[in-house]
Structures
1.
Amino acid sequence: MMRSVGSGGGGGDALHTVNNSTPFDNNLSVGVAPSSSSVSFLEDAYLDRINTTAIGVGHLKKLYLPPFRGPFFVSPDIFAWIVPSGITALLVFGTVYYTGSQQSTAGLVSLFTLLGIAFVSSLLVGITDPGVYPRLGHGERDPLESCTHLPICKICNMRRPRRAAHCYSCGVCVLEHDHHCGVIGGCVGSRSLRWFTLYLLSISSASAMGVYWITMSLLHPPANSDRPTATELMKQRARHQNQASLQTAAHIFLLIFIGNIVLLVGGMGLYYVYLMSTDTTRREAQGKALKTNLDSYVHGIEGNVCTRFTFNIRSVLNRLYRSFFMVPQSMLVSRGVTCSEMKPLAKGREDPEPEGLFE
């Protein structure tokens, strides 16, 4: 799908074309498109907004690391990431300590690869732009002020696009806001949903490997071990109540703990894959926000019914591809347009207060 939007620079009438096609796009029969007057929210001039100042990032902290291009945007509760990471490290140590001697090198490499992906993706949730719709900078005019059907964020003092919501932890509005995850310390939005989903899938896959290893170690202990199997332990339970193996108890504890992680985190990971494949956020799935999708207008009544009640693998792959590889550009990083080139505020309009904001 092609769309033309304003360049956002000082050129006035200059336009550029954005190509949203993906490897899974197929030619859809498009019905009568709605007029711009009846569906004014289809205007997307706000996509060209750029605000690199401290006002735009809210409570996020801008961090520059020399080896990397561009800044990181650190979440205010980034240190919460230490707790789940520490628990994961302890569980990995316990699993490898009791079952590592029975595993192949390939199995251990696979486990630590999954854990590495989990650590990196969870960290990226807390240090990358989640899809911030920045506050108005000094001298900037709200591009959506004429769209009276859009809600006004009373904190940011501007109209926000559809599917955006205010994150009180980050102090800014976030496009396609899903939730702010206090467990790993990061906001989940249009640009960070892929990292959050990748974290859930990788940590649940690594946990599933741990459950399998522990279960096999319980049923088939090493040949040089005098530890009884779970079956033998149950047979001896009546005569040897106080002789339960410490290693077996540790195995059972790890099995229960990691098994719960597989069920909870794995289930959540599959749920988020479903949300990504249907282009839906958790807020929208729970009825907290109104989801507006262009497809519901351009397919017509017949097309909408077919899309709703039939499974289209191409559509699913297309949405997953877009969620992972076609995230919107950050509005907090300069792309050749500065705040000084933006439209001035209307006469008599006050600048937003930057209280409580820091860089």
2.
Amino acid sequence: MASLFDIGKSGVQAYRQALTVTGQNITNINTDGYHRREASIEEVSASQGGLTAVASQIGLGARVSEIRRSFNEFMTSRVYSTKADFEKSNVFYENVRDLENFLLPSDSDLGNFMGNFFGSLMEVATAPGDIPGRLVAIEEGLGLAGAFRQTGVMVEGLKMDAKSQAEATADTVNLLVDELVKVNQRLLSSGQSGQVPNSVLDNRDKLISEISERVELTVTYDQRGVATIILGGTVAGPKLVEGATARKMGIIENQGAIQPAIISAGSVSPTSQITKGSLAGFTLSYEFIGEIEKQINTLAFLFAREVNSVHENGITLDGKAGGKMFTLNDIEFGFGPTNRGNLSAELNITNIDLISPEAVEFVFNEERQSWTTNSEDSFQNLSTSASRIAADGFDLKVFGSAKNGDVITLDNVSGAAKNMSFLLKKPQELAAASPTIVTQNSLNSSDAVMEINKTTPAQFTEPPVVNAVFENGNIPINATDFLRDGVIASIPAGTQNFSINSYSQQPNVSIVLSLDDLVDANNLQIVLADGANAGTHNFALGYGGLFSNAGSSDNWTDEAEFQKALAAGVVTSDTGFTLGDLGLFPSSTSSSLNIASSSAAFTSASVTTSSKTINASVTASQDASDIQIFTREGRHIAGSPLSETEIVNFLSEENGFNPNAEYYGSYLNQELNAYRGMNLNISNVGGLETIRLGPFGSTSDAIAGYGSLPDSPTSSYTIAATISNGSSPSLT
């Protein structure tokens, strides 16, 4: 049984500890992260005696059972959310304030420079021959270009500063997360009792609070107090910290915006869960400033284009046509940050004025093997394939293998403001005069008035020039093949002579045949569908059977030798025909055998080896394309007469015709004294025919000498040919 003194002593000790806790609270009232403590005092009960003893009803005094931290999980979560909301708004406000301070009207703002520039041009218009006025206009032009550059650089700097701060914030979050993981490890090592110093829990909550200022988060705790950090306002977001493991945060740039991302095991996963915190403020600032930058660049682009257009229509003080006043950067292209293909590209600009000022995104469609866009209306005559994106004004060649979903962006405006320059150096270069002057003759006696109004010439849709569409060569082997019917091209102005041919395509078969397959081949089978020799024809291909003098190890050396044997008639069918007898002509490459027919259609063809049958791909004949030649006004120069439906379909602005074009067929196919004195030569021939001469005949024993005429030690000789039109050319 405790004495009265022992009971009193326990009470004094308990309340002394409680006073110590109170003193600790007072001392740390301004300590960052400190949570108020509270001493919990409980009775020290008497212990029980034996089985027949009665428990003491007096007790043994008092003691401090626990030092509790003042912590409310719900209220703390609300504090975290409120902090994140405030930090986002505060960061966005500070960035927008800096932008506003720069763009507010002042004596040196962009609008003031533009007003001064146009004012100086008005002075030049009032006195076009006044050199001092022209000098002032040039200085104002230089000042305006400098103002655009300064504005572009400043706004871009604010945007990039927001990105840098976002990256720095992500790095700070990573450092705080690493510290929190260490705290979690200490909590995990405390055992099931969870008895850890309150200072450790204070440190945990302080770290979480600092993280919450930067990113929106949700926190859960286990029974030991180990914290799990989830990004976003719900538990459905990605986990940033879980026990003793953590993920890193980073920033990626995508389509003109920056986005937080989770980095884990080498993979980068963008997340849209972070809508609060200073990091969200920086991403929002970057996007907002980027939109302002785009508007400023668009203003610079349109301003330069319109002013240049007007100035180029004027006359300088020296009587020359005006040039461009302002210059900007060229069109830029870029690749998507998440592209999986290894791509590079080459851009050729033909007319930057024809390119849309909007940024356009092209996405690769693997099924179509072409680049697609939702902005087709921004281009004229847009065409794409896997290796090319082209339209009026530019041609982009793409190298490498694109993957489905890969992105290429074209931007004609980006950087326009910061790259603007004023081109005129001398006052005489300012084009202040009109190329057309209307004056009244002093001898006029009537009161008639002539009024002349300037009109804009009709704008044509400019089809690609003919050399860009067709191969420049009048031989069938160089002819251009098209994937679909119909193609439009323009003959450049000033062309003196021009010829164009359209070829029909003969029936042909193509057999993929390697040298190993050829050496092992024993039969070529050709099945003709029609004609006098319709049916199946088999050609034995064994080298020893064709060449009686061949050794046991001799065989075909390449596809060219095999093709020559077929063409020379060494190889005959089981019906006694050569390929020439059947109207067939062979050709070869290093990996294929091609056979064309003069008229008969193919049903099938194949080569049989000792181990397999190689089937040919069969291509049917195609008629030659019609050729129609018009002027922009609708005069039909050459071709075949058009029906009413064809006139409506052909004579459109999209095809390059004048909006007021009307069809006239009276000039059609006039070979002499045709439209405006031109001469036409129109012919329709059946095809090209050849005669092959071998030195010793076409037997198998003579094939070794095929391909060249024999050297003659005596006199020269003459080759003569008789053609169906009656002429007899010869070659000596």
3.
Amino acid sequence: MTKNGAFVYSRTTCKIESVTFMRSCLRFLLTAALILGTLVVSRSFNQECEAESARIDQKEIVKMAEEILAGRHCPCQCGRYLPGSSLSPACFGCSVGKAEITYVLESLEAGKKPTEIIMDLSSPVIIDVFADYTNENISKVWKLVKRVSGKLHKIRVVLRTPGLTAEARRAIKLAECARLIGNCSVVQEALINHQGPWDWNTLINLTEHYGMDPERIRACVDRIDIDAQITKDQQHAEERRIRTYPTITINRQITANSEQAIRKAIQKVLLEQSI
């Protein structure tokens, strides 16, 4: 356990559950040891040197991520700490909390400065899009929200997937495996834009197109548990009285799926926070 409420990490050899995922996600996303602890074996001396250099960089990224995330509360506004935090109480099975951690990791990997990331995380605007990947309107609504919100604030837009069908749950499992392996945002966008079919072979081939190992994906989807995440997303949808999908909420308030409504809601939050 690290100090100041940083995250606790462990390697899993059995069924991957939500808490285990959050406690180990930094290591899983940023080291060569993936879901089953399979190490990437270098084929040459040069590759070994490059791998060692990458591991050093990854350790630095993990260290910076720990410092950024330490003591932070879950952005789902439950009042608890981020999932996997050593501080109590911690949120559990929350896609918003997972998105927060993934955002920090991917931003650091992309070379973004910690001060910039902290500024992004301080945004008072929290936008959730409730919809499954299989929803025929998800791509249109997602792109609308990203485009409008991107001009007004820097925080991420979070996809909340209720997992209403078996096909939807397959896509969620795939996205969460991509989160573990470290290619989450790319695969998530691909799934959002995917029009079907939603069988396993098609979905795994889709991730392979983005450089992911199909065997590791298959191993992951056999083990990963998304039940807690789906329960949490469904619970939040019910609390916000969401009856149809896709539905946008801004700071937990339902917002119409229109550019004007999204812009107005964001500006209202920003104005209230500036007073």
